[in-house]
Design brief:
The protein has 433 residues and is an alpha/beta fold. It contains 15 helices and 14 strands. It has 2 domains: 130 residues, Beta-Lactamase; 246 residues, 3-Layer(aba) Sandwich (Rossmann fold). Helix 1 packs parallel to helix 3 and helix 6 crosses helix 7. It is globular.
Length: 433
């Protein structure tokens, strides 16, 4: 008698197999990121972005990692009743917390909507994280011990303690500046046709312009831009190293870039993908069919001004760093509410140019060393962008104690419908609060 396969059992085993593969992929991603040997804050942020893919419903999964004074979270993060949490502690006594939230309700499983295997997974992931942190801290201790002790001038223990306290007091402000903006965009993958890439580099010298903006404003950590011309090259580069953001340029071909975005987003959901369109007419057509751009995190319009790349970079850094910077240094922020890529692509370069120039002028008036001035540029107000009423109110409610100003359009989406008075309602609500 032949064994007959039970279809339900087959699909159950298949689903379990897929979940285990997702978990294994998440662990492999963690290990790959850790091997890059970047600073702890930047590594924790990158780890935060890849973890959501390991859970049952990744598109509805939000992650937050806390460690000491640092806090990193995914873009869709919000606290809900459906969560898993796992505490950890590094060898120097600093506590951390790994949190996973579902942003909507799902069927009951072993632990609320979570599987028993996901509890095991979050424990394993927290162990990997704390193991990595302990490794870094241990290496730092070994380096300090390996340094040769100098003979000669010795300071009495009491005098040494007083001297150290004096130095620490003088450097307390600098310590805060060092802790600001822990996340920086270092690697950008630019996907465009050879013609578009040649045109931009030939006419506007993109790389030189971005470098010029960083140099002019005394900013460090200039990102490296890696250009590719098709999907296969992009996937090869993504396997080679980690990228902080991906920019896809759209020219005459309006189909291939969107297909590439969906394919890449399916495999690298944690990397922000921005679409840069060189024709505002295309934007109008794409806005009529929002389903077509589901793989795109945000869309921008190329106006022939290379500063748009600088604004895209800073907008991402501000969104990631805002939680950390407002908490440890009370950094102020500007909220721009605009749903049209055509307009916010023009507003953002102006805003960033104005904010950075003003901050730099204030710093130049202070008589201090150059390193101190470079660090203090980090105290500039952050800029956040919201494209609808609900997103604007969520950001305002979360950061209203740090809000410098709100700049709003009048007509944008509210409750899924285009509201001609949404901006007025937003301002009225902001005034009340």
């Amino acid at each position: 008698m032949e064994n007959q396969t039970n279809p339900e059992e087959f699909y159950r085993l298949l689903a379990i197999s897929k979940e285990r593969m997702k978990e294994l992929a998440a662990i492999n991603n963690l290990v790959s990121i850790i091997k890059e040997n970047k600073p702890i804050p930047e590594t924790l942020y990158q780890l935060c972005l890849v973890l959501a893919d390991a859970w049952q419903y990744p598109e509805y999964t939000a992650v937050r990692i806390r460690y000491g004074q640092y806090e990193f979270q995914t873009r869709n993060f919000r606290e809900t009743p459906w969560s898993q949490k796992e505490e950890f502690e590094s060898i120097d006594g600093i506590r951390g917390l790994l949190e996973v939230y579902y942003t909507q309700k799902f069927p009951e499983a072993d632990e609320g909507p979570f599987l028993k295997e996901e509890r095991d997974l979050i424990k394993n992931l927290s162990n990997i994280i704390v193991g990595y942190i302990n490794s870094v801290k241990g290496q730092e201790v070994l380096k300090d011990k390996a340094k040769p002790k100098r003979r000669g001038f010795e300071v009495e223990p009491q005098s040494k303690s007083l001297l150290q306290r004096f130095i620490n007091q003088q450097n307390v402000d600098r310590d805060i500046y060092h802790d600001l903006m822990p996340f920086k965009v270092h690697e950008i993958l630019l996907i465009s046709t050879l013609y578009d890439a040649y045109s931009i580099e030939k006419e506007d010298r993109l790389t030189d312009n971005i470098l010029g903006e960083y140099t002019k404003l005394s900013l460090s950590s200039v990102p490296r831009i890696t250009g590719v011309s098709n999907l296969d090259e992009a996937l090869d580069k993504l396997e080679e190293r980690y990228f902080n953001m991906i920019i896809i340029m759209m020219g005459a071909d309006t189909v291939t870039p969107l297909k590439m975005a969906q394919r890449i987003k399916g495999e690298y959901n944690h990397i922000p993908i921005y679409l840069l369109v060189n024709n505002s007419v295309i934007v109008d057509e794409m806005e009529k069919n929002p389903v077509a751009i589901t793989g795109i995190d945000r869309m921008f319009v190329w106006n022939g001004e290379p500063k748009i790349f600088f604004s895209m970079i800073k907008l991402l850094e501000d969104r990631v760093n805002i939680e950390n910077d407002t908490r440890i240094a009370l950094i102020r922020l500007i909220l721009l509410v605009e749903d049209s890529p055509k307009y916010y692509s023009r507003y953002l370069p102006l805003l960033y140019g104005s904010v950075l120039d003003q901050t730099k002028r204030m710093i130049e008036d202070v008589s201090t060393d150059e390193l101190y001035k470079v660090l203090r540029i980090r105290i500039r107000p952050k800029i956040l962008l919201a494209e609808n009423y609900e997103e604007a109110m969520e950001l305002f409610s979360r950061y209203k104690d740090f809000m410098l100003c709100v700049i709003s359009d009048v007509k944008f989406f509210r409750k899924g419908k285009l509201d001609e008075h949404a901006g007025v309602s937003l301002v009225e609500q902001v005034r009340k609060e």
